[in-house]
Structures are given as structure tokens and as C-alpha cells.
Specification:
It is built from five helices and six strands, in the order βαβαβαβαββα. By secondary structure, it is of the alpha/beta class. Strands 1, 2, 3, 4, 5 and 6 form a six-stranded parallel beta sheet that branches. The mean pLDDT is about 95.
């Protein structure tokens, strides 16, 4: 059997976002048990049906990456009790049919969700909204365990770098659970 592949989709475009750092820590934990790639999508335009067919090159690129993966691991911040607009825009593009004969690329893909935030919610509310959306798109959501990390400052060093302490075992458990979830699919 080929090595499993995981695409990490970070809901923040900020270069050193906490959620990008969390995704990189997940990549480190997964190690050589799977291919792990962070999806770059800052160049994906706003969804506009006037440019939907043929899809712009950045959209085609992310669709190709997503359609070739075994699982998607979302890392989302929480903005105003919701996941960010850039993540919603990406999912909107991925949810659209590729062509009249080819459906959207998210259907049936296993998904995990994690998030870290400076606030108290730990991204739980945003994750619930995200689950609603990706369930509608018929992704296979691993609801347990999900990881919500509140009060990011407690696990950030003086240089703004994520140094997981109390949350590290939970990320390790989620990584193993997601690998098992994908393998059973």
C-alpha cells in the first residue's frame, strides 16, 4: 500500500499564523507515517461565476492537489465565532463541479479539524460551523477527537512561535486517530 497523503488547509493566510504553526507541528508529529503537505492558496481569487469555467489556474492547481489526497486536515482560527472568509472562499471553489461531467473534489474525503486562538473559545464554535459545511459537501468528518486550543499566548514563546506544552499530547492523539481514520476509509 502506498503511503497515505494528507493535505493541511490552514484558514489563515498570515505567514506566521498560530494555525499554520499548529499545522507544521502536526506535520512533524505525523513524520514519515504519511505525506503531509500544506496547501498554499493565497492566489485563489474570490469565487465569481463569470470566471468559473474554465477555472482559473490557481483553482485548478488546488483542485488537483485536493483530488489526489487521502485526507484533509483543517486548521482554522476563529473570527467572530466563525471560520475565516478565505477558508470559506476556498471551500466554495472546491465545492463547485469541475465540469459538467466531473463533480466537486471534496466528496468522500476524510477530514479532521484543529484550531488555536488567542481567545477563550479555542475555535470550537468555528469548528462546529466548518463541520456543518463540510458535512453538507459529503466529506467524511472525524468528529472525535477534534482539537481546540484556547489562550494561545500560554503556548507561544517570546518570539511568537508555537511551543505546545499542555496541548501536545492532544495533537499527537488526533494525528494518530486521523491516520487510523483515513486508513479505515
Amino acid at each position: 500500500m502506498d503511503k497515505l497523503s494528507i493535505v493541511a488547509i490552514v484558514g489563515s493566510l498570515r505567514r506566521d499564523s498560530y494555525n499554520k504553526q499548529l499545522a507544521l507541528e502536526a506535520m512533524r508529529i505525523v513524520g514519515d507515517r504519511a505525506r503531509f503537505e500544506l496547501l498554499e492558496y493565497a492566489d485563489v481569487p474570490l469565487l465569481d461565476q463569470d470566471i468559473e469555467y474554465p477555472a482559473p489556474a490557481p483553482v485548478k492547481r488546488v483542485r488537483d492537489i485536493v483530488s489526489a489526497t487521502d485526507g484533509i486536515w483543517f486548521f482554522t482560527p476563529e473570527y467572530n465565532h466563525y471560520f475565516p472568509g478565505v477558508l470559506k472562499n476556498l471551500i466554495d471553489w472546491l465545492s463547485r463541479p469541475v465540469s459538467e461531467s466531473q463533480p466537486q473534489v471534496l466528496r468522500g474525503i476524510p477530514a479532521a479539524i484543529s484550531g488555536i486562538t488567542p481567545g477563550m473559545s479555542g475555535t470550537g464554535i468555528a469548528q462546529d460551523h466548518l463541520v456543518t459545511l463540510i458535512s453538507l459537501l459529503n466529506m467524511k468528518v472525524m468528529n472525535i477527537p477534534r482539537l481546540t486550543i484556547p489562550n494561545a499566548a500560554q503556548q507561544i514563546d517570546e518570539n511568537g512561535k508555537l511551543v505546545l506544552s499542555s496541548s501536545a499530547p492532544f495533537l499527537e492523539r488526533q494525528a494518530q486517530a486521523f491516520l487510523n481514520f483515513i486508513a479505515k476509509d
